[in-house]
Amino acid sequence: MDVDAVNKFSSLHAKPNGLILQYGTAGFRTKAYHLDHVMYRMGLLAVLRSKQTKSTIGVMVTASHNPEEDNGVKLIDPLGEMLAPSWEEHATHLANAEEQDIQAVLAEISHREAVNLQQKAMIVIGRDTRPSSEKLSQSVIDGVSVLGGQYHDYGLVTTPQLHYLVCCQNTNGQYGKATIEGYYQKLSKAFVELTKQTFRSGDEYRALKIDCASGIGALKLKEMECYLPRELSLHLFNDGTKGKLNHLCGADFVKSHQKPPLGIEVKPNERCCSFDGDADRIIYYYNDADGRFHLIDGDKIATLISSFLKELLSEVGENLKIGIVQTAYANGSSTRYLEEVMKVPVHFTKTGVKHLHHKAQEFDIGIYFEANGHGTVLFSKAAEMKIRQLAKEETDGKKRKAAVMLENVIDLINQTVGDAISDMLLIEAILALKGLSVQQWDAIYTDLPNRQLKVKVADRQVIDTTDAERRAVTPLGLQEVIDDLVKKYRFSRAFVRPSGTEDVVRVYAEADSQENADNLAHEVSLAVF
Ligand code: NG1
Ligand code: ZN
Fold first, then answer.
1. 25 lies in the same domain as 48
2. Are residues 81 and 188 in the same domain?
């Protein structure tokens, strides 16, 4: 380690006095002007993680659905997964260290994690379209360079594209080619194969309006369009040419306000969707003939994908186990439908993609979606091998056809993380194959009316939860109050939990009517004070 160089660069990327930040569910996130030192230090940390794992590590500069003034950073582990929990702690430690202690903290992490400092390091970097992102990614590069790491700056990419690129780099191209073109080629080939018998030219039914949250999704969809069949006519709105990132638009806005975004005219019965600012979430919606808004959230996306895969699996006739993973925010109707009608097992984890992803890895085919539209499908290595073998060798034509379709789903879905582009293509393929309209999809089950609220409290960490965050353990007595409030309503459910990304406590309530869900959420939020 070149001690002088580290010292010099550390003072060029000085930490604001007294600032303490935490590596949360999605890395560091706060106002962009507070993040220069964090970016530099995450560059340093990525080098150590790369040396330790002898693999390429990713660093993504983004704050997803947060306001344009914010920014954030997260590290991506070798197979495209979220950073390992012990390294999240190192990240927090390093980000909060005083300048003169940086060397010591780096040495301590290297010692504890048995990092061989002689090992080479390779880092890949990506960023979203925020005005602050370019400069902040330069600070990451400073951190990487000062420790002698090599890097490749992919520039503007969606978060899931960087996850894909990391995975490709570390699997000798087995997952795909480690270029953005490779990503487009892999997904579009699978999409074309999957839909080749269903698309007819000039078919207006395939038109899809996409609200790109004025973010990176628009840029990448425009690049990808030439790889996709013309029959899939994508109409992009909030494409970043005007308008502020995530402002009154995007998947998070649509989901939390339960209304269409600004900047897109939703005509009756038109199929629309919204990405979030870094294109790892997707939400569908439409207005019915009476102008009533219908939201099709992550739960309904999971249901559509699960029923499609379950049908293909029964045609293939192999005993492959499907598991669905949800969080406490999943609408009660979706859980009931999946368990009671579709007869597939549903598992619950804490909020945060890493928890869902981890659980989904336990199944042959694990499907996870957060209600907010972040999700994907994971195939175990054994399941993937079996499916690919059947697609090649099966002599029964019907079985082979189903196996080929499953193989294309494997290639179309981004197994590293939730990916709005990849999810959108899979959903569009399924709707086309099944001949389903957006209304038919929506009618699979009826969502229970629900409400989410944010409550500001002095210290949100006084709330501790259990049972996948569905019950509060502390403060003492809170859960009993919630239980009593819930009993007042029919088909009701409510819970509170501290947010992992904002300084708030989140309240969720569900009931038989919107008025009752609103009232219950309000009453529970009063109990939190
Ligand atoms: P928090 O702030 O912990 O609720 C939010 C989302 C998560 C996840 C993370 C990361 C909700 C209720 N919570 O977490 O699902 O997406 O952000 O972006 O939507
Ligand atoms: Zn996002």
1. yes
2. no
CB count within 10 Å of CB 288 equals 13
State which H helix or E strand residue 211 sits in: strand 208-211
**Spatial CB neighbours of 126, under 8 Å, sequence gap ≥ 6:** 58, 59, 60, 61, 137, 153, 154, 155, 156, 157, 159, 161, 162, 165
Residues 412 and 336: beta-carbon distance below 8 Å: no
Task: Please indicate whether residue 64 is annotated as part of the active site.
Answer: yes
Same domain, 128 and 261: no
82 lines ligand 1 (CB under 6 A): no
Selecting among 10, 50, 55, 64, the annotated active-site residue is: 64
Task: Say if 163 falls within a structural domain.
Answer: no
- pLDDT value at residue 231: 85
DSSP characters over 392-449: HH--SHHHHHHHHHHHHHHHHS-TTS--HHHHHHHHHHHHHHHT--HHHHHTTS-PPP
523: enclosing H helix or E strand: helix 514-528
pLDDT for the residue 469: 96
Burial (0-12, 13-18, 19+ Cβ within 10 Å), 102: buried
pLDDT at 3: 80
- Decide: helix, strand or coil at residue 241: coil
Ligand 1: nearest atom to the Cα of 372: 19
Which ligand 1 atom is nearest residue 256's CA?
Answer: 19
Q: Which ligand is nearest to the Cα of residue 27, counting in written order? A: 1
Amino acid at 154: Y
* Minimum-distance ligand 1 atom for the alpha carbon of 64: 18
What is the rounded end-to-end Cα distance, in angstroms, of the chain?
50
Question: What does pLDDT average to in each consecutive run of 10 residues of the chain (529 residues)?
Answer: 85 95 92 98 98 98 96 98 96 97 96 97 98 98 97 98 98 96 98 85 73 98 95 94 96 95 95 98 97 97 98 94 98 97 97 95 98 98 97 92 97 98 98 94 97 92 95 96 98 95 92 98 94
325 forms beta bridges with 347, 368
Same domain, 456 and 433: no
- On whether the CB atoms of residues 483 and 506 are closer than 8 A, the answer is no
CB-side neighbour CA atoms (13 Å) of 344:
32
124: nearest Cα among 89, 90, 84, 165: 165
Of 60, 499, 503, 504, the one to substitute when testing ligand 1's pocket (max ligand atoms within 8 A of C-beta) is 499
Predicted local distance difference test score (pLDDT) of residue 25? 85
- Top mutation candidate among 370, 452, 465, 510 for ligand 1, by most atoms within 8 Å of CB: 370
- CA-nearest residue for atom 8, ligand 1, is 352
Residue with tokens 């909030």: 238
**DSSP H or E stretch at residue 191:** helix 180-195
CATH number of 371's domain? 3.40.120.10
State which residues form the domain around 244: 182-198+205-295
